[in-house]
Design a protein that fits this description.
The chain is an alpha+beta fold and 476 residues long. Helix 1 packs across helix 2 and helix 8 packs across helix 9. It has 11 helices and 12 strands. The protein has 3 domains: 160 residues, Beta-Lactamase; 101 residues, Orthogonal Bundle (Helix Hairpins), CATH 1.10.287.130; 160 residues, 2-Layer Sandwich (Heat Shock Protein 90). The strands form 2 sheets. Strands 6, 7, 8, 9, 10, 11 and 12 form a 7-stranded mixed beta sheet that branches. It has a 5-stranded antiparallel beta sheet with strand order 2-1-5-4-3.
């Protein structure tokens, strides 16, 4: 059952119970009040008749010591006819509670009479056929005798009014209940509308439409729930997008890795098969062996780079205070002397917080890429300058450059702008991917600016601990 139907059902039950109980209490209260009034009037009437009987008994001529039964009947008859038009019914009984006189229509048992004592009033409500009466009883002292006076007062109208009250109230209650159900239906529909919208949004998202958002129609708790759901949807959409990007990146990585393995392995297998299956002269043998060695070294380099990326992600970086000059001395020892390139080292003396071996790997990779992108005799600038936000390292070449649309992709593993040129120089497209991972451990990132045919500048920023004078050296 829908929540709105449950809400409507329970509201209907509560309204019906409330109206039913309150109506029963109200009608019954009116009935009891009317009945109490009738009882009071019946007792008053009994008291008046008792007084009238005693007064009439005093006016009877004294012939006997006791009031005679005939006189009793005569007085009772006079009292009955004296109330003509009122429907008065009475009954007189003697000391033994034997009936001496009874009005026509006074048909009832002797239960009340038997329980009536001297100097005591009693009453009860009885039903005779389809009519209701209040029967009262009292004792009468007349000329030395104790008689018992009973009256019947017709109160059928009070019971009829109660029945009519219940009938009218039932009709009114049904009308109010129907109106309440109609009104509550629209209220329940309005209250549960945010829930229906959330259900629809959940179904749309389950079907794969992660951009779908639930419409907010209120500012209450359900409206807040809608806002939270939409924020959750945005976070979920972003996470799924990231996962899809990661899955695509992994697929691209696997494809590129398989492709990079296939090329050198094809060469290695081909030249090895040539050496195995036929006898070659010394020059061809050396040439084949050189191809095998070159491609093997490229596979080794690619494996080591992949291993470096994996180890870097797992082990993290151990930052320590190191002098910038030590990094530049390391670069000079790695790339000098060099007869094909001109290196210009310019830096400000300072100390940076870094993992020495990892930052050396980054700088070596950037310099190696600069050399591969440059022609012989080109100038490569390696700079280190203090800035307001930290210490910036920059490696700038004047080589072939990178197309603008390719700049954002070159940090992906195995991505190479010029694959043939990279392979000819033992490149695998993993250097910049490794640099990106290392710099992320230093809360930094690789920044690349390039123009096709003019050169490329790759740099990054590290936290600076101190600053001294500037040194500039040119080597070739």
């Amino acid at each position: 059952m829908k929540f709105s139907h449950k809400l409507l059902l329970w509201t209907t039950i509560i309204i019906a119970l409330t109206l039913g109980l309150s109506g029963y209490y109200f009608v019954n209260y009116v009935f009891e009040t009317s009945l109490e009034r009738e009882v009071g009037q019946a007792l008053d009437e009994n008291s008046i008749l008792r007084f009238a009987f005693e007064t009439a008994a005093l006016n009877v001529p004294v012939k006997y010591d006791l009031l005679q039964n005939s006189s009793v009947e005569q007085i009772a008859s006079n009292l009955e006819t004296g109330g003509q038009g009122t429907g008065r019914l009475l009954r007189i009984s003697d000391e033994e509670k034997n009936v001496l006189y009874a009005s026509d229509g006074f048909e009832t048992d002797d239960e009340l009479l038997s329980s009536t004592e001297e100097n005591q009033y009693s009453y009860r409500v009885i039903r005779v056929d389809d009519s209701f009466y209040i029967q009262t009883g009292s004792s009468v002292n007349a000329l030395g005798r104790v008689l018992y006076l009973e009256t019947l007062r017709d109160v059928s109208q009070v019971f009829e009014e109660r029945q009519m009250g219940f009938t009218v109230y039932r009709r009114l209650m049904m009308l109010m209940l129907v109106l309440g159900i109609v009104i509550m239906y629209f209220i329940a529909s309005g209250l549960t509308k945010p829930i229906r919208l959330l259900m629809r949004a959940a179904k749309e998202m389950t079907a794969g439409d992660y951009s779908y958002r639930a419409k907010q129609v209120s500012n209450d708790e359900l409206g807040q729930l809608t806002q939270d759901f939409n924020r959750m949807s945005e976070a979920l959409e972003e996470t799924i997008g990231q996962l899809e990007d990661e899955v695509q990146a992994r697929e691209d990585f696997v494809g590129a890795f398989a492709h990079e393995l296939k090329t050198p392995l094809t060469s290695i297998i081909g030249y090895a098969d040539m050496l195995r299956s036929r006898k070659l002269d010394e020059e061809k043998s050396l040439l084949s062996a050189n191809y095998i060695y070159t491609e093997g070294k490229r596979l080794e380099s690619m494996s080591l780079r992949l291993l470096d990326i994996i180890v870097t992600k797992k082990e993290g970086a151990k930052l320590q205070k190191i002098p910038v000059s030590a990094l530049f001395e390391y670069l000079r020892s790695m790339f000098l002397p060099n007869e094909t390139m001109e290196f210009i080292f310019t830096y400000d003396e300072a100390h940076v917080m870094a993992d020495t071996s990892l930052i050396q790997t980054v700088l070596v990779n950037l310099l190696d890429n600069a050399c591969k992108a440059s022609e012989q005799g080109s100038k490569i600038e390696i700079e280190g300058h203090s800035e307001e936000d930290g210490y910036r390292f920059t490696v700038r070449d004047h080589g072939i450059g990178i197309p603008e649309e390719e700049v954002s992709k070159i940090t992906q593993a195995f991505y190479m702008v010029d694959k043939s040129r990279s392979r000819s120089r033992n490149g695998a497209g993993l250097g910049l991917a490794l640099c990106t991972e290392i710099l992320a451990l230093h809360d930094s990132k690789l920044e690349i600016e390039s123009r096709l045919g003019e050169g490329t500048a790759a740099g990054f920023l590290l936290h600076e601990e101190g600053k001294e004078e500037q040194n500039e050296e040119i080597y070739s």
